[in-house]
Amino acid sequence: MRSVRALIAAILSLAALCGTARGEEPKQGGILRLYHRDSPGSASIHEGATYSVNVPFMPVFNNLVIYDQEVAQNSMNSIVPDLAESWAWSADKKTLTFKLRHGVKWHDGKPFSSADVKCTFDMLMGKSPQKFRQNPRKSWYEEVVDVTTNGDDEASFNLKRPQPSLLALLASGYTPIYPCHVSPAEMRVHPIGTGPFKFVEFKANESIKLTRNPDYFKKGLPHLDGIEFTIIPNRSTAILAFVAGKFDMTFPTEVSIPLLKDLKAQAPNAVCVVAPNNVSTNIIVNSSDPPFNDPDIRHALALSLDRKAFISILFEGQADIGGAMEPAPDGLWAMPKDMMEQIPGYGPDINANREEARKLMQKAGYGPDKHLQVKVSTRNIAVYRDPAVILIDQLKSIYIDAELDVVETANWFPKIARKDYALGLNLTGNAVDDPDQSFYENYSCGSERNYTNYCNRDIEKLFDEQSMETDLDKRRKLVWEIDKKLQEDVARPIIFYARTGTCWQPYVKGVTVMVNSSYNGYRYEDVWLDR
Asked: To which H or E segment does residue 361 belong?
């Protein structure tokens, strides 16, 4: 099975990678021009909950380790050194020690050291005098007791218990190392990193500009002189500009299947890759307040969904149905299809599901003569709005009359984090294809990203059990059982996982499209322009 996955990953890498052909030397220079789908709330990756932040600002930073930027399918086998030269686990698997690169400099000229590693994770764990304004992935590090240093070139993560997947979390595009000497407030507006590109400017609702770091520790990289993002929220307008040659590349994974057809008809030489991105479109409900504190109404919501209709309308069939983990074959932890179809609402008989849903709504006091009135809140970009409109239409079948409430990006995640909504249509990107990331971040009691207030202590014990399991087959079966239970509990009803397009002009080389995380492939240090 592992060899089959490796073959799939290799094929996808070859298909996605328009890099150096044999004997073709990368050219230096040029500005890579992309459009951006919206204006990020800040430039701080650690405080962001959307890859609208990762895409433009990941090139500014380095991690300790990173997923190989030329391998499409992220896995433990594709993790490579970044700021760390090497790493090793202790015999009891409770200490992970990194040997760090010596001589690396921050963009302001100050030296990088183990102190910066400790500062970064002290802030993420809430142990630092300086605090992040938002800390959406604090739950990733619940098992870390502390980070200790040994001189300038060694840092160790000391754990309460074994957690093999910690390394996978550290390789995410969401896990850059921040400088000790720059405050969180400054990082929001003028980030300082060690990465291949330096921050130049961020004009909200207009543009983001980066320039080449001439002192980058990876010799010969980056190839580009800079990267410029122009913020264009309207997808059709942005794609027309790409077709007209104003941009070298689309915003990654943002081209819908219908728009992709239009793009290819007008720009037949464009290179386009359609791939899954490990982002689920889902329903979030505020289960703490009426009416969705009633489990019958939450179960009725789940039973009302016609997932195939969403996929047919939005993606012409090119999307996948799944649970908390990304569907196979690109996702490595997906529950089997026959197991998934046993879950209420996942079976093929939509009419029977909705009849059961109407009975639950009547039990809760609603019916043909008394509809539930509610707002469906969602973020004001197309990938959120479009499925929200379909959801509103489907809810009519179970006595729910909903109206759309659109929220700008800068306000969306703070709004749902403070539970200031009743019913929402959300997209949840899994930053790593690993159960620890998905379960602890989105479903553990008290996590900032647990937008629905779902809390099941028995399930949390299973989270820990799978997290410690080193036998992959045993762990996978535990993950399936947990995922099935989360769907049965209507913790966060998953509608679908999209497959979307990324396109670039034929002279752009060195691009790889990740297939099991849309958050990890935006360093751009290997990209070059052949013109």
From this structure: helix 350-363
Distance CA 408, CA 107 (A): 32
DSSP-assigned beta bridge partners for residue 354: none
Contacts of residue 295, defined as CB under 8 A and 6 or more positions apart, other chains included, come to 490
Q: What is the end-to-end Cα distance of the chain in Å, rounded?
A: 42
pLDDT tens digits for 83-135? Answer: 999 999 999 999 999 999 999 999 999 999 999 999 999 999 999 999 999 99
CB 511 within 8 A of CB 12: no
Gap between the Cα atoms of 427 and 384, Å rounded: 7
Residue 274 burial (C-beta neighbours within 10 Å; 0-12, 13-18, 19+): middle
User: For position 516, what pLDDT does the model report?
Assistant: 85
How many CB atoms lie under 10 A from the CB of residue 238?
24
Strand partners, 499: 276
Pairing of strands 400-407, 372-379: parallel
Q: Find the farthest-apart pair of alpha carbons in the chain and give their distance in angstroms, rounded.
A: 73
Residues 6+ apart with CB under 8 A from 492: 282, 283, 284, 324, 428, 442, 443, 451, 452, 454, 486
Residue with tokens 């980056």: 222
**Other Cβ atoms closer than 10 A to 431:** 27
Average pLDDT of the chain?
94
Place of tokens 């969904």: 305
Contacts of 359 (CB under 8 A, 6+ apart): none
> CB-based burial of residue 114 (10 Å sphere; 0-12 exposed, 13-18 middle, 19+ buried)?
buried
pLDDT of amino acid 16:
41
Q: Which one-letter amino acid corresponds to residue 307?
A: R
Render pLDDT for 234-245 as a digit per residue (tens, 0 to 9): 999 999 999 999
What would you report as the CA-atom Rg of the chain, rounded to the nearest whole angstrom? Answer: 23
* 8 A C-beta contact, residue 285 and residue 292: yes
CB atoms within 10 A of CB 205: 10
Q: Are 19 and 518 in contact (CB under 8 A)?
A: no
**How many Å apart are CA 67 and CA 79, to the nearest integer?**
4
CA atoms within 13 A on the CB side of 409: 22
Q: Tell me: the pLDDT tens digits for 286-324?
A: 999 999 999 999 999 999 999 999 999 999 999 999 999
